[in-house]
Amino acid sequence: MEENHDFQIVSSDQTGAKKQSLAKPDPSGTPFKIVIDPKVRMDLRRALIDLIDYHDDALADHFAEGNLALESYKEYIELFARSLKETMESREGVSYLLRSVGFEIGAGEINMQPELRWKKGPRPFGPSLL
Question: At 126, is the secondary structure helix, strand, or coil?
């Protein structure tokens, strides 16, 4: 029997019967519309692609100007991943993503350590999404 690994993100105060689907007919009727709203998801994807392109261009420029030494493609990928990770771990990086989907949130209001609240306990990858 194959185990079902689907999950839902729910508010910590949600009660009542189990939802049959994550999406609601009225996307504004849920605090998690950013998870399911197709436009927000597309805007977020576009922002991530733009961010990836920016980091790629910046690393290439630094290398071309002789400011960055690279010994292999492996090292380039490691630096690229580090650059993206550091950006996404910063309030500026999260703020960029929020703005890209239409939210103007003050830096002090950004939760840099949001708690994953699994509906049925940790999923196959453990307590994180990865």
Answer: strand
- DSSP3 helix / strand / coil % (the chain, rounded to 5): 50, 5, 45
Could you give the C-alpha distances from 45 to 5, 98, 100, in angstroms and in order? 23, 12, 10
Distance of alpha carbon 99 from alpha carbon 58, whole angstroms: 21
Q: Are the C-beta atoms of residues 58 and 76 closer than 8 Å to each other?
A: no
- Cα dihedral 109, 110, 115, 116 in deg (nearest 10): 130
CA of residue 50 relative to chain centroid, distance: 14
- Residue 108 has which token pair? 């002090």
**Mean pLDDT in residue range 20-41:** 58
Per-residue confidence (pLDDT) for residue 121, from 0 to 100:
62
Is residue 84 within 8 Å of residue 51, measured between CB atoms?
yes
The CA angle 70-54-60, to the nearest 5 degrees, is: 25
Is 12 a residue whose pLDDT tops 80? no
- Residue 2 has a pLDDT of 47
Query: Which residue shows structure tokens 């580090």?
Result: 82
